[in-house]
Structures are given as structure tokens and as C-alpha cells.
Specification:
The complex is a heterodimer. Chain A is mostly helical. Chain A has 12 helices and no strands. In chain A, helix 8 packs antiparallel against helix 9. Classes of the chains: A mainly alpha, B mainly alpha.
């Protein structure tokens, strides 16, 4: 395993993951800290952040999850938020045609929003491998885990406004969005997806908003292409 | 939350999350996809990034606390767009976003 990591550890993968996990640290410390008043014990910190916070992204979701709701409700809301991962997995599928099953599983199980953006951009450039992409995922997840656990233990000593810390991630998404090819069809996709998310959140469907909004955008793009828009 | 409750939530979330993450890639990888599906997959990146950005920037009732608190992330986002279009650098965009948002909060 160590040899595998070392042989795949390249400057490009560390640079790519730097942007993702650099911004994660402060944000995740804040998230871990926010879990405490909701009833999380320190022993829950590592597994909780790995598999629950991992799908939630924002502190308000943390509070939602640990706010005393019914267990089925918690599982359902976390699952809903994670439905967007289906789109991510579908987008990566063309790049994993000849990749081994174990590595495909490890990669797909560890994708984060941030590593999705970084890895997909790299795959589109054509100079990326499944091994490097998985390392980016693991770097992001590990930093996420450590920052959350640190937040549980030393959160009281931190005073980082979560909105500011979280904006690092938003900025990365904006950069990745701006980096997309500007075509009439893509403009339609972006406009419909963004409008769809806003609309869905307004009517209270925050959980699946990203998935459904993105699906609306893709559908609009397909319709536009059939109508002759390029 | 008791340890048992925690274990139930953990296991339930783990099952659904792994399913959402892994099933699509195993179902689609290595298959000859029809042109329409291939075309749809190519549209996922701009759609997903737009959805993620909109999800971060828009919150229902964001104007309830006043115009300026709601506009701050949007103004900071504009600064990031300028930097992104010039540099295409994730690191510079993250720095620009955090610094500009922090400065706007101080104002």
C-alpha cells in the first residue's frame, strides 16, 4: 500500500488536492465543533464525520442531523443530500472503463464535492489516472476527517465564522464552473440548473436540490441540442 | 443520541451513501453508451457545478436579515469570477473568495 501511494504521489495530485483540502480545514473544524451541542460524543467524531457529515457539507445539516430527529428521518435526509453522488459517479464512468473493480470501488466510495470538481477537470484535460484521482479523494477525506475531529476537541477555542470558511469551497466551485467551455448549450444548462436549485430550495426541497437541479440543467441542454442549439 | 442510535444512523447512511456512489459507475463503466446518454454525461459537469454554486449562494429567506448580508456572498462571488476567468487557479480563487468575504463582513 505504501509503495502504491508513493508511486502514485505526484506533484500534480498534491497540487490538485491542495486547493480542495486547504479550504476544508477551517470549515470542517467548525463543523466538528457544531456537532457537540447536538449530542455528539467525542467517540462519535471520527465515524460520524466520515460517513454522515461527508454527505452533508454544511453546518446547518449537521445541526439538522443531530437535532433530535427520528432516526429514519436522519437517514432519509442524509441519503437525499447524497443523491447528487449518483450524477458524479455517472460523470466519471467513461474514465473508468479499464480500471480494476477494487480501485473503482475505492474511488467512487470516496468522492467528495471538492474532489469531484478537481478530478473531473483533470480527467477532461486527459492527463489524469484513476490512481491519482483516488489519492486526491483520500487526501480530501483525510483532511476532512482530521479537521472535524479537531473541531470536536478544540472547537471551543476557535472562532472562525463558518460562512467565511465555507466560502473557500464555494470559490472553488465557481472557479470550476467558470473553467467550463462557454457554449450556448452550456449556458442554458448552467442557467437552468442554478434556477432549478433556487426554486427547489424555495419550495423546501433542499435535500435533493443539487441532484434535481443538475438533472433539470442536463435535460434543458439535451432539449436545446435537439432544437439545434450548439 | 445513544450509541445504538448512532450505530443505526451510521449503518443506514453508509448503505445508502455507498449505493449512490458506487452503483452508477459500475453499471455504466465499460458499456457502449448511446449518443444521447454520452451527450447527457458531457453536460453533467457544468450542470453539477452550477447546482453546487447555486446551492451555496442561495438560501431561502437570505434577504430577511437585510439586503447587505444577502449581497455579501454574491459580491464576493463576483470577485472570484473575475479571478477565475483570469487565472483559472483553484488556490487563488479560494484565497480571493475567503479574503473578499471576510473584508465585506468587516465593512
Amino acid at each position: 500500500m505504501a509503495n502504491y501511494v508513493v508511486s502514485n504521489l505526484s506533484t500534480s495530485s498534491t497540487e490538485s488536492s491542495l486547493a480542495g483540502y486547504g479550504g476544508l480545514c477551517c470549515h470542517r473544524c467548525a463543523c466538528g465543533h457544531h456537532g457537540k451541542p447536538g449530542g455528539l460524543q467525542r467517540a462519535h467524531g471520527i465515524p460520524y464525520e466520515h460517513d454522515v457529515l461527508f454527505g452533508c457539507r454544511a453546518v446547518h445539516d449537521t445541526q439538522h442531523v443531530v437535532g433530535g430527529r427520528a432516526l429514519a428521518s436522519i437517514i432519509a435526509s442524509v441519503s437525499f443530500v447524497n443523491t447528487r453522488q449518483m450524477l458524479y459517479a455517472a460523470a466519471f464512468s467513461p474514465y473508468f472503463t479499464s480500471v480494476r473493480k477494487r480501485l473503482t470501488f475505492l474511488f467512487s466510495a470516496t468522492v467528495t464535492d471538492e474532489s469531484f470538481g478537481v478530478n473531473l477537470a483533470k480527467f477532461q484535460e486527459g492527463s489524469w489516472s484513476a490512481g491519482r484521482a483516488t489519492l486526491v479523494n483520500l487526501f480530501c477525506m483525510t483532511t476532512w476527517a482530521l479537521a472535524n475531529v479537531a473541531g470536536v476537541f478544540v472547537g471551543d477555542a476557535l472562532s472562525i465564522p463558518t460562512a467565511i470558511a465555507a466560502f473557500a469551497m464555494t470559490s472553488i466551485f465557481i472557479c470550476l464552473l467558470v473553467s467550463q467551455k462557454i457554449t450556448p448549450v452550456n449556458c442554458i444548462v448552467v442557467a437552468v440548473a442554478a434556477a432549478g436549485v433556487c426554486l427547489l430550495k424555495t419550495v423546501g426541497l433542499s435535500g435533493p436540490a443539487i441532484l434535481l437541479g443538475a438533472c433539470l440543467g442536463v435535460c434543458a441542454g439535451m432539449i436545446a441540442r435537439k432544437a439545434g442549439v450548439r | 443520541m445513544t450509541l445504538t442510535d448512532f450505530a443505526i444512523v451510521y449503518a443506514g447512511c453508509l448503505v445508502t451513501m455507498v449505493g449512490f456512489r458506487c452503483i452508477p459507475i459500475f453499471v455504466l463503466k465499460g458499456r457502449d453508451m448511446p449518443d444521447n446518454l454520452q451527450s447527457a454525461l458531457n453536460l453533467i459537469p457544468p450542470a453539477a457545478f452550477a447546482a453546487l454554486v447555486a446551492n451555496d449562494l442561495y438560501k431561502p429567506g437570505m434577504f430577511d436579515a437585510g439586503l447587505w448580508p444577502a449581497l455579501m456572498p454574491l459580491v464576493a462571488a463576483l470577485a472570484v469570477i473575475v479571478v477565475a476567468s483570469r487565472t483559472k487557479s483553484l488556490v487563488w480563487c479560494a484565497i480571493t473568495g475567503v479574503v473578499s468575504y471576510a473584508l465585506l463582513m468587516v465593512l
